[in-house]
Specification:
By secondary structure, the protein is an alpha/beta fold. It has 14 helices and 17 strands. Strands 1, 2, 3, 4, 5, 6, 15, 16 and 17 form a nine-stranded mixed sheet that branches. The protein has an eight-stranded parallel sheet with strand order 7-8-9-10-11-12-13-14. α1 crosses α2.
Length: about 475
């Protein structure tokens, strides 16, 4: 073979076909060869990964940045959170931009901010909240390279006012689904029937056995499942792809699987917190999130669905608000918490070590499938010749405890505080550049914008052509 910039040797490498001891050659940020371990290769740099595992860099498809979760505007929005991602083996983030402004105004600011200060690659989803934004979807997909859009089904009336967002209705949702279908895009809906939540509020607060149980009772599983059932039907009518973000439990899985019997364009995401925390967890208000943490039985149902292929992806739903927003009672604490640093470690520890889920399956839900669904494959998503040299280098057996103040998000806490994980990210490479190593300084901020002109079924079809 020709000369390489970088050669990674000695590792057990998680390839699409299985785990093998091979060496990986990289030139100009691209994987140029995968050879049998010990093969003589001329390289400028040799990285010895003996005793470690190399997984494809994780793609976190569900990230919010800035304290107000609108869009990244300052170095403080990008630096700590992208470093937190890299420390968790995440090499690409897809970030939700949320604003009632035209995205022609928001997009350049967010792109410039991330390009200046992110150590990992990045793309965007747009939260579509106005008619003007909806009408601009052809432009967003074709010209801006943003082909996935969030819709808050729960923002009826004044529910979104705290974020500066207007209310919506089912007519808007239907028009949005039609626009998504017409432009090869995908909808990423926050699925909750807020009218049923209002009914429960009117009836009065139900006190659970702890704060997290009370929050689950205030927004029970049928609130989410009912909205997902509507989406499955309207997606079938319009032909739109939709991606069920942060699926939280068994009832929602049941509705989504029923929907798939009539609609092939339904894709399912869950989050590490729904897999590893529940309404019995001791993290209190630090674990408040929407949809709420569900029961231990729901948690196990998600693991089963992940293991057997029902769940497509795992995204963090990372929210970097400072811990002071959480240090209140369950009714006034902010919803959401940081998680991008713990996606891969939690899956290694709770999924691989405790439940025997193969590393190839973990690589599929954290890298290959998000790349496929969001129009990044085969540039991203697998260790294969021709793909970007994005790697998470793991000590599969290292035990470590989560300490929120030691994690890198500006939120300065973690709902997994004190939890012991087995499996730790030791090094992270983005396009062949080592951006993170335990105990070392971070690499330079060389993150690139990832344009994605197709998502969902349209992206899968394009990859198969």
């Amino acid at each position: 073979m020709t000369h390489a910039d970088l050669l990674i040797t000695g590792a057990n490498v998680v390839l699409p076909e299985g785990v093998r001891q091979v060496d990986i050659a990289v030139t100009d940020g691209i994987i140029t060869d995968i050879v049998e371990a010990g093969t003589s290769v001329d390289a400028d740099e040799v990285f010895d990964a003996s005793g470690l595992h190399v997984l494809p860099g994780a793609i976190d498809p569900h990230v919010h940045l800035s304290p107000d979760i609108s869009f990244p505007k300052t170095p403080e929005d990008a630096i700590p959170e992208s470093r937190s991602a890299a420390a968790g083996g995440v090499t690409s983030m897809l970030i939700y931009l949320m604003s009632a402004q035209p995205y022609e105004e928001v997009f350049p600011v967010a792109k410039e901010t991330m390009a200046a200060d992110s150590v990992v690659d990045f793309g965007f989803h747009f939260c579509v909240v106005t008619r003007e934004q909806l009408d601009s979807i052809p432009h967003y997909a074709k010209d801006l390279g943003v082909s996935s859009y969030k819709f808050f089904m729960n923002f009826r009336g004044d529910e979104g006012a705290y974020l500066g967002l207007p209310g919506n209705d089912d007519g808007f949702l239907f028009d949005l689904l039609e626009a998504v279908a017409a432009n090869g895009a995908m909808l990423c809906p926050h699925a909750e029937n807020i009218e049923l939540v209002w009914r429960l509020r009117t009836a009065g607060v139900k006190e659970g056995k702890n704060p997290l149980d009370s929050w689950n009772l205030a927004r029970p599983d049928y609130i989410e499942a009912d909205a997902l059932n509507k989406l499955a039907f309207l997606g079938r009518v319009t032909g739109a792809s939709h991606y069920a973000v942060h699926t939280s439990g068994a009832l929602s899985l049941d509705v989504l699987e029923m929907g798939r019997t009539r609609n092939d364009n339904i894709f399912i995401e869950t989050c590490p917190h729904y897999l590893t925390l529940d309404s019995d967890s001791t993290c209190g208000c630090y674990g408040k999130v929407n949809p709420p943490l569900r029961t231990p039985a729901d948690r196990e149902a998600l693991w089963t669905a992940l293991a057997n292929g029902v769940i497509d992806t795992v995204g963090s739903d990372h929210v970097p608000r400072h811990r002071s927003f959480k240090e209140k009672d369950i009714w006034t604490a902010s919803a959401g918490f940081p998680g991008v640093e713990n996606v891969l470690p939690s899956l290694l520890s709770e999924g691989h070590h405790k439940r025997g889920i193969p590393l190839t399956r973990i690589a599929e839900v954290t890298s290959k499938r998000p790349a496929e669904l969001f129009g990044l494959y085969p540039q991203k998503g697998a260790i294969r010749v021709g793909s970007d040299a994005d790697f998470a280098v793991i000590d599969l057996n290292e035990k470590w405890k989560v300490v929120g103040e030691d994690q890198l998000s500006a939120a300065a806490y973690s709902p997994w505080e004190g939890e012991e994980f087995t499996g730790r990210v030791r090094h992270t490479f983005v396009r062949g550049n080592k951006v993170f190593s335990v105990g070392e300084e971070f690499g330079p901020a060389t993150g690139r914008f990832l344009a994605r002109h197709k998502s969902g079924a349209a992206a899968l079809e394009a990859q198969n052509d």
